[in-house]
Amino acid sequence: DQLPTVRELADELEVNFNTVARAYRKLDASGSISTQQGRGTYVIEPDDSNRTTLEEIARRFAGQAHRLGFEPEEVAKAVGFVLGQWELEGRPPDE
């Protein structure tokens, strides 16, 4: 799907042009959208094989945590903390 231009969206939402431009840059950097000079900005559909891989990783992680004796609530809290740090720092956690 094609997204509106930065200027169009800023006007529609009644926000500063730079705010929308910054959001588009972050989405582009994350691979969620693709901006092509002269053609527009498009949403990138997620690759189902990546989703399957992510679910497999999550399943193995949950199984390992269970084998180590952790309860689901503890695992969710730990994952939430790590994801919160990722969001705050703007980069994925170190391995």
Task: Tell me about this structure.
With 95 residues, this protein is mostly helical. It folds into 2 domains: 42 residues, Winged helix-like DNA-binding domain superfamily/Winged helix DNA-binding domain (Arc Repressor Mutant, subunit A); 42 residues, no CATH class. It is 63% helix and 11% strand. A 3-stranded antiparallel sheet has the order 1-3-2. A hairpin with a 3-residue loop joins strand 2 and strand 3. Helix 1 packs across helix 2. The protein starts with a strand and ends in a 6-residue tail after the last helix.
List the helices and strands and how they pair.
Elements: E1 2-3, H1 6-13, H2 17-30, E2 33-36, E3 40-43, H3 48-67, H4 72-89
Antiparallel strand pairs: 1-3, 2-3
In short:
It is built from 4 helices and 3 strands; from the N terminus they run βααββαα.
Shape: elongated
Radius of gyration: 18 Å
Secondary structural class:
mainly alpha
Number of helices: 4
CATH structural architecture of the largest domain: Orthogonal Bundle
Task: Kindly give the count of domains.
Answer: 2
- Strand content of the residues, in percent? 5-15%
Summarize the biggest pleated sheet: 3 strands, antiparallel
Termini Cα gap: 34 Å
Task: Give the CATH level 1 class of the largest domain.
Answer: Mainly Alpha
- Report strand order across the widest sheet: 1-3-2
CATH fold call of the largest domain: Arc Repressor Mutant, subunit A
Give a quick set of tags describing it:
single chain; 95 residues; Arc Repressor Mutant, subunit A; 2 domains; 3-stranded antiparallel β-sheet; 3 strands; 63% helix; 11% strand; elongated
